[in-house]
From TrEMBL:
InterPro entries: Phenazine_PhzF-like. It comes from the Bacteria. It comes from Rhizobium etli (strain ATCC 51251 / DSM 11541 / JCM 21823 / NBRC 15573 / CFN 42). One of its GO terms (molecular function) is isomerase activity. This is Phenazine biosynthesis protein. NCBIfam families: PhzF_family. GO terms for cellular component: cytoplasm. The gene is phzF. The active site is at E47. Belongs to the PhzF family.
């Protein structure tokens, strides 16, 4: 019987069965693209990662990321979780594991640092592979239709809803309160219409909604919906969080600043996650975004490839 080992971890949490679950295939050599997609669809997590030997020996591994419906160039929680899994090993493809890793991905090189306690990895931090790009504005009516809200629920004082990316494109929009955020419900027809009319840069229309704390504007509560990608709601979205944090720091009046942004997500799903973002801004431009969080192991097993 031909089998393939996997492990699952909950990411952006230190509490098992909270955070965002991730399946990691630590040695995916020999798998076809179609097989990877079928495995990701079978798990039905927001993402599954497949680890391969690096094309450049200076790097640690090549990591491919699949949602239930497609391969994507970058995502936050898959990198944080994959680094956590690989960091528990003594070597990766014959090379010793240190405290820093480099992943080859479609979006570019992802740099990783491992945080250890008692010799074990407890958290990881990754650097966004691309600078912030901000795309077209999106009508408040489009956002509201996607999540069954009134257009007046979309706050536009700080910014209009826009596309933003540091490696993966998201629509980001602020809502007018935590109760409104809790009331959001994805409307598939609204997402289908939005995807048909907006420039999504090769990715389904994925919507990241947020509310800023009145006590601390760098503390944020968020939800992410991507029903067109078979992800009705995602409990933790590091790539969207990084794009939003970079965009908000860009909009801040200070020319130079270093900010720690904390984003709480998944609360409404019963899978609370905490995503930390360290954003550096110099000369009016965001120069660095680091995504970090804790992880906890959950399951391990085997996938049967052939009887």
């Amino acid at each position: 019987m031909n089998t393939l080992s996997y492990v699952t971890v909950d990411v952006f949490t230190s509490t098992r069965f909270e955070g965002n679950p991730l399946a990691v295939i630590s040695d995916a050599q020999g798998l076809s693209d179609a097989a990877m997609q079928k495995i990701a669809t079978e798990f039905n997590y927001s993402e599954v990662t497949f680890v391969l030997p690096p094309e450049d020996p200076r790097n640690s591994a090549r990591v491919r990321i699949f949602t239930p419906t497609m391969e994507i160039p970058f995502a936050g929680h898959p990198n944080v979780g994959t680094a956590y899994v690989l960091g528990q090993r003594t070597e990766i493809f014959g090379k010793p594991v240190g405290d820093r890793l480099r992943f080859e991905e479609q979006a570019g090189i992802v740099e990783v640092s491992l945080q250890r306690s008692g010799g074990r990895v407890t958290a990881t931090a990754i650097r966004a592979p691309q600078p912030l790009t901000v795309g077209d504005a999106i009508a408040a009516e489009t956002i509201a239709r996607c999540v069954s809200l009134d257009p007046g629920a979309v706050a536009v004082a700080t910014h209009a809803p826009v596309f933003a990316s540091v490696g993966l494109n998201f629509a980001v929009a602020e809502l007018n309160g935590i109760e409104t955020l809790a009331a959001a419900r994805p409307n598939l027809a609204g997402f289908q219409q939005a995807a048909g009319t907006q420039t999504t840069r090769g990715h389904d229309f994925s919507l990241f909604l947020y509310v800023r704390s009145s006590d601390d504007p760098w503390k944020i509560r968020a939800r992410m919906f991507a029903p067109l990608d078979n992800v009705p709601e995602d409990p933790a979205t590091g790539s969207a969080s990084a794009a939003l944090a970079a965009y908000l720091v860009t909009l801040a009046p200070e020319t130079d600043m270093n900010v720690r942004v904390s984003i709480e997500q998944g609360v409404e799903m019963g899978r609370r996650s905490i995503i930390a973002l360290d954003v550096a801004k110099s000369g009016g431009t965001v120069t660095d975004v680091v995504i970090s969080g804790s992880c906890v192991a959950v399951m391990r097993g085997e996938i049967i490839l052939q009887d």
